């Protein structure tokens, strides 16, 4: 296997780092073990020599007494013998050829052969291995962290995110393939935006011509019902195009880019609610303690939220035997400071929404079972409401209205 392959494969580098660490520890432990065995053997040899006997040339014993051995590093054992005249004699016993080290400096210090010294040396070796392996591991994990942050930015909506490519290992290959995929996705989304813009223009042009032709047909009472039906279908198509375009713009825009949908501003929600209630002939109820109801966001999108909720309430509140004007929009403020929240509630007197379907009604193009197409609506109104509210860090939910009907509650940071 070539050296270039070892430099390119991430798992091989990690494997080599582990093998090197284990090898160093094994060599150190083996060397210390050998030194400990050698010292133990020498001490056993010294303990065998219990007594030193000193004689002269005539065979007379000059000294015959137990001797104390002292180990001289690098030389051998020195024995102290007490002579019969009470004088001292030192006898040197060099290391045997088998036990004598070829290089006295290669022998381990005595303190290393103790349990405490052995533990200290292992700790120092482990620390050295850890410090040596840290740059390798950190370099690998830092590149993985950079890859993770880039993917998170791209997943959050920043489609222009690209990763830097360094080296030729698996991480570099993954970053390169991510860049290719991100480029393709961004290109597809840009093409989708252009397609929607062109389609909106091409679809609205024939709708305008149909409206003009319908106006030129005349007011023959015999065809009044047909003209009314055609006009209703034209309005529904126009509304469908408008809501599809807005939904696509919200889906394709970057949530982290404040300029994606235009600049944000301080929006007078009370003023918007008054205008939309007047347009829909709905009642407006403002809590006494509400004061100025101002939120930060896009006025055009917040107006769409109020309009869709009011139109939905009037559409499904019909046929209940009650006046259509009994749709009510309520405004209130809860909390204060950073915990301040603006609450918008829209009530109707319709049949209500079953509990198991209160989440599904916010899905695109979903209609309640039994809903007639003649009631109007294209199934995108509530989906747009949830998308816009979530873009403003708010929530929307559907619940029962006391006394019957449905209540949609929107909560926005105030």
Report on this structure.
With about 425 residues, this protein is an alpha+beta fold. About 50% of the residues lie in helices and about 15% in strands. The protein has three domains: about 10-95 and about 110-135, no CATH class; about 170-250, Signal transduction histidine kinase, dimerisation/phosphotransfer (DHp) domain (Helix Hairpins, Orthogonal Bundle); about 265-414, Histidine kinase-like ATPase, C-terminal domain (Heat Shock Protein 90, 2-Layer Sandwich), CATH 3.30.565.10. It is built from eight helices and twelve strands. The strands form four sheets. It has a five-stranded mixed beta sheet with strand order 7-9-10-12-11. Strands 3-4-5 form a three-stranded antiparallel beta sheet, with no helix packed on it. Strands 1-2 form a two-stranded antiparallel ribbon. A hairpin with a 5-residue loop joins strand 11 (about 395-400) and strand 12. Helix 3 (about 115-155) packs parallel to helix 4. Mean pLDDT is about 75; it is low at about 1-5 and about 100. This is histidine kinase. It is an enzyme of class 2 (transferase).
User: Number of DSSP helices?
Assistant: 8
Biggest sheet details:
5 strands, mixed
* Domain module count: 3
Radius of gyration: 45 Å
Structural class: alpha+beta
CATH class (first level) name of the largest domain: Alpha Beta
Strand tally = 12
What form results from the Cα inertia axes?
Answer: elongated
Pattern of helices and strands: HHEEEEEHHHEHEEHEEHEE
How far apart are the first and last residues' alpha carbons, in Å?
Answer: 65 Å
Lateral strand order in the biggest sheet: 7-9-10-12-11
Mean pLDDT: 76
CATH topology of the largest domain: Heat Shock Protein 90
Strand content: 15-25%
Low-pLDDT windows of residues = 1-7, 98-102
Query: How would you name the CATH homologous superfamily of the largest domain?
Result: Histidine kinase-like ATPase, C-terminal domain
* Helix content range: 40-55%
**Name given to the CATH architecture of the largest domain:** 2-Layer Sandwich
